């Protein structure tokens, strides 16, 4: 028989999350529970055994269906007890005296939360958990008292799996949001780059603009400048000078390169060459 006899419990036991699993056919059931603070905690390996309904159901007096009356054996044995009439500690002690390895106490009222059962740890060496009324009635209906049909196990593995799934889903969502943001940002920058890219003139259009051969004698005219505003070099005799519609003059090679590569406006006054305004 599965026992934890001889274990001297500390003054207070920290409860750990656990699950009650009934291997019922055709549908198994799993219920959340609240382990008692004064009973032996459920370890990571858990415990499985046969489940029996307490007689009397409230287990406030010695049980009629004790371990020895059921044929003995080495398999663990659980007892299902209803809340009410006496304290949790009394019920667990009665279950222990009846030879059971774990007491599963279910609520006698429909409530949204589970109690964390408290009591004196001294002399308690079995497991004890508290479940909802719905879970208790389900266990009571489908239990058959068969070996290994009911298990009380730690929920750490299940919780860990849930956390991993949630973390993975969250990571996927975050990556998707970042990817969507970067994609939208790149598209916006690309559109902005296309729209902001300087326009240019075709060389044929530039070549029809008037030009003349520079001579030093022209400097006496109000129309001529002495230096090209693009390359900042003084004009030399014999160089070709291009005149824009705004009447600003430049080396032909300088302004032609500007208009065909960088923009359609005068480098000095910014007037559009195409419009002629």
UniProtKB/TrEMBL annotation:
Domain of life: Eukaryota
Membrane topology label: Single-pass type I membrane protein
Record-annotated RING-type domain positions: 228-270
Species in which this protein is naturally found: Ananas comosus
Gene Ontology annotations for the cellular component aspect, listed alphabetically: endomembrane system; protein storage vacuole membrane
Transmembrane segments: 163-184
EC number, as in UniProt: 2.3.2.27
Pathway field: Protein modification; protein ubiquitination
CDD domains: PA_C_RZF_like (cd02123)
GO BP: protein transport
Protein name per UniProt: RING-type E3 ubiquitin transferase
Keyword Nucleus among UniProt keywords: no
InterPro entries hit by this protein: E3_ligase_sorting_rcpt (IPR051653), PA_dom_sf (IPR046450), PA_domain (IPR003137), Znf_RING (IPR001841), Znf_RING/FYVE/PHD (IPR013083), ZNRF4/RNF13/RNF167_PA (IPR044744)
Annotated Pfam families: PA, zf-RING_2
């Amino acid at each position: 028989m599965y026992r934890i006899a001889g274990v001297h419990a500390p003054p207070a036991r920290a409860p750990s999350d656990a699950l009650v699993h009934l291997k019922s056919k055709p549908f198994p059931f799993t219920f959340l529970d609240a382990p008692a603070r004064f009973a032996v905690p459920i370890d990571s390996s858990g415990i499985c055994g046969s489940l029996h309904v307490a007689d009397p159901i409230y287990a406030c007096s010695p049980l009629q269906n004790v371990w020895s009356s059921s044929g003995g054996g080495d398999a663990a044995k659980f007892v299902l007890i209803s809340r009410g009439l006496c304290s949790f500690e009394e019920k667990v002690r009665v279950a222990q005296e009846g030879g059971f390895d774990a007491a599963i106490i279910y609520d006698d009222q429909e409530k949204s939360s589970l109690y964390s059962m408290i009591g004196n740890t001294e002399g308690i060496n079995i497991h004890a958990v508290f479940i909802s009324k719905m879970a208790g009635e389900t266990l009571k209906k489908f239990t058959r008292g068969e070996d290994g049909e009911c298990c009380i196990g730690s929920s750490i593995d299940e919780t860990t799996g849930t956390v991993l799934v949630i973390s993975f889903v969250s990571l996927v969502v975050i990556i998707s949001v970042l990817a969507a943001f970067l994609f939208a940002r790149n598209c916006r920058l690309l559109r902005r780059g296309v729209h902001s890219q300087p326009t240019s003139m075709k060389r044929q259009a530039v070549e029809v603009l008037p030009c003349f051969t520079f001579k030093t004698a022209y400097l006496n005219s109000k129309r001529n400048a002495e230096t090209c505003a693009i390359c900042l070099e003084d004009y030399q005799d014999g160089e070709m000078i291009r005149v824009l519609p705004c009447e600003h003059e430049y080396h032909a090679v300088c302004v032609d390169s500007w208009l065909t590569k960088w923009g359609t406006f005068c480098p000095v006054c910014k007037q559009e060459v195409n419009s002629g305004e």
